[in-house]
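Hi R.,

As promised, here are both runs. First protein below:
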Amino acid sequence: MSKTILTDKQKEKFRDKVKEQVEKTGLTRINNRSCESEADYFAGAMVVMTTFNEMFCGADDSNAMDIVPPMWFIGPVTGRSLKDNWG
């Protein structure tokens, strides 16, 4: 399968849109008490983001996470919730 390489601007636009949607949906799920594990929720989103980054942006194992917002893994590791207004 040949890779379709997106421009940095397209990658940034995709990342921003997905970040907004994942956090909005996550916050709704948390507030509705339908999110059993915030860490699992973000882990699933990160898998999709890194896969997209590898398939369409030309990333490899060394930089596949550069598309993932840092608070998606720092927050759960440090015990912070999306409800803590990550900014």
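And here is the second one, sequence first, then its structure tokens:
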Amino acid sequence: MKSSYIYILPTFIFLFFMFQPFSYCGATENSECFECHSDEALERVESEGMKAGIFVNEYKFKNSVHNINSVACIDCHADITELNYDLEVPHSSNLAPVDCGACHEDEAEAYENSVHKKAGGKGISIPCYACHDYHYVRPLEGYTVTERENEFCLKCHDPNKFHDWLPQKETHFDHVECAVCHAPDAPRHIHLRFYDLVENAYLESDEILAALNTDHENFLKLLDTNKNLIIEVDEFEKMVFLLRQSNIRVTFRGELLSEMEPVIHHINRGEAKRECETCHLPTSPFFEAVTIVLDNEDGRISHYEVERRVLETYYVNHFYVIGGTRVRLLDRIGLVLLLGGVSVVLVHLSVRVVTAPLRRRKKEKKDEFTA
């Protein structure tokens, strides 16, 4: 009889737990969170009595920088340790605020002494997600000036109210990111964007690669014939030629952008650069870093360094800085025309001087004949 209990007892325990409600599970997968948060109607009532949507677009989240880097929901919402599906809300409805600085320490340190952080002392709260959104943070390296301004600065600021001293404001706003001046310690680069003159539209990365019959891995290999990892002027012209063979008449529009370094968050009143010569000199360091940026399918960004002299070619327009991006060939043509004009005048004067005695004698004979 004792031996039969040995087999019956484990079977009984197994069946007992098998038919018990499975109430708890560790929340380790994002898919578990989306079982609820993929519902567009999902919302919660805040303490002020207002309703706030807590729907998360799964497709947009998958393309976010956090998901690309395998950041799980509970990595940010760290106070969720388990889910109880027997409850209407399977976790606490009052979660602690997400501490972005736990991962982004350098960014948090730079932000701590910024004008935006200091605004908190005036009763204004500007947390990270006020600019970066909650769940859809994308890699910003590929953003255009307009996209960066619309996504961040222009949410709160009207630049037209504070830049009366700035000549050609609209040109600066279109081609120079706000942080270039307002975060002066951040490194910068010029981003060249492909523009199709036939379609009058910017080209996407996949269109460029398809036209060149290559991919991200082989893009630089195709152009960089001397293997120095820099697209030089002749290699740049080769790329333009290859695109024209695919019936794409391309030009390049330049933008001056800040690098996505932590120091970009350190913005304070009175620190913005206002000296025009900071940019408008041929030797300006702002033009040393020139890149082509292509975005990958997974959302990551690839930078390809371009020789600075590319800015002096016909292929870069809508980005002219006096003395900084002069087309040297035009200078040479202008010099030839100027020298040609001066030469014509000098030759004409020389001929007049040399032939003066002949013309004088001819005039004297004419006078004698008429007398």
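A quick note on the second one: The chain has three domains: 22-119, 138-326, 331-370. Let me know what you think.

Best,
J.
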